[in-house]
Amino acid sequence: MNIAALPNRQKLDSYWMPFTANRQFKSAPRLLVAAEGIHYTSADGHQVLDGTAGLWCCNAGHGRSQITEAVSRQLATLDYAPSFNMGHPIAFDFAERLAAIAPGPEGGKLDRVFFTGSGSESVDTALKIAIAYQRAIGQGTRTRVIGRERGYHGVGFGGISVGGLVNNRRVFPQIPADHLRHTHDLARNAFVKGQPEHGAELAEDLERLVQLHGAETIAACIVEPVAGSTGVLVPPKGYLERLRDIATKHGILLIFDEVITGFGRLGARFASDFFGVTPDLVTTAKGLTNGVIPMGAVFASRAVHDALMTGPSNAIELFHGYTYSGHPVACAAGLATLDIYEGEGLFTRAAGLQAKWDRAIHSLKGARNVVDIRTIGLIAGIELEPRTGAAGARAYDVFVDCLAKGLLIRVTGDIIALSPPLIVEDEQIDEMVSILGDALARAA
């Protein structure tokens, strides 16, 4: 596709695109103009199978009329209302619905909900809550936060500090943070379906950092249960359980970043439920509104929440918030999204597709340049051998090739990620694998 082929010779100069090589993109743009079900329509009229649920967010697929109608009704009723010292009913309704399905077991759910506008905002909010909690319980020296190498927690200053992507960190200053080692181990865990056997001992890094910095300086540790944006890194068996034990032992809050894994991606409502490990805080966004309207939410335990509900009743307990916290139209989209998830059984549908998904994706083992395949829930990571002196180039070429043949994939470095909408059917999984297999065969 070239600019001349675009409707009305669309101008591309003004839009500074995020996480994009702007000059490369604008020399050969790829534009999507419509979406329905599990397909996009490109600017030249071709159907494109959505292998990534948009950007890990459109879990119920595209063009859901139930969400459209709910948004339209809300816009006609109350388009915006402030959330600072004011309220509107739909935000409280949505919080109650979320509390009912919140991460954690009955009697221990993280059922206190703080609304944000995105995953990045959710992460920075959770970090601030953690530090404020420690101060509230008399542990004001706990200001350090712990992340993990190859972790992605958005682009706020807190998120890049705990994140483990060098390109996100090298230009910008950060808050005090340290990092666990990542769990990716090709030598011992290649071509695994589900959780790998080796690597639980890497959780002991948290003990090492306690010894290095002192527990009295550490407020929280944040990890993605499954790291998505850095190439589908699945936690080894026992790893998350050990992190939970160490954090509890030292009074460190454990935060799960479930911006990607929340709302059915692994075949359970949340990854914390799937793995049976309950953190103290959970960050969400993306699937919260099916990607229709930007919104995020932080789920907090009652212990964390209640520790801040002290002092004079007219005092602000957490000096934090956003103009769009609990936005009424976003809440309407979120409520309609929950109705779809629950009505169509999408929270658990990935579990029923797991065997088919594993077989189909792992059939690519032995394909040209494939050095590893990782699957869990309805997520897959296919790792390619990099070209000498051109890391990421091979996967990018596969991305462009797949798009030309009607499949949208995501690449990070030389890792291909797949995460289709939870409404995907068996034949569409086969189509994805066929298109991707052919593109891998053509990749030089």
From TrEMBL:
UniProt keyword annotations, A-Z: Aminotransferase, Pyridoxal phosphate, Pyruvate, Transferase
PROSITE patterns linked to this entry: AA_TRANSFER_CLASS_3
Stored CDD domains: OAT_like (cd00610)
GO molecular-function term, one example from the UniProt record: pyridoxal phosphate binding
GO BP: biotin biosynthetic process
Pfam families for the chain: Aminotran_3
SUPFAM superfamilies: PLP-dependent transferases
Names of the cofactor(s): pyridoxal 5'-phosphate
Keyword NAD: no
Family as reported in the entry's similarity comment: Belongs to the class-III pyridoxal-phosphate-dependent aminotransferase family.
Protein name as annotated: Beta-alanine--pyruvate transaminase
Source organism per UniProt: Paracoccus sanguinis
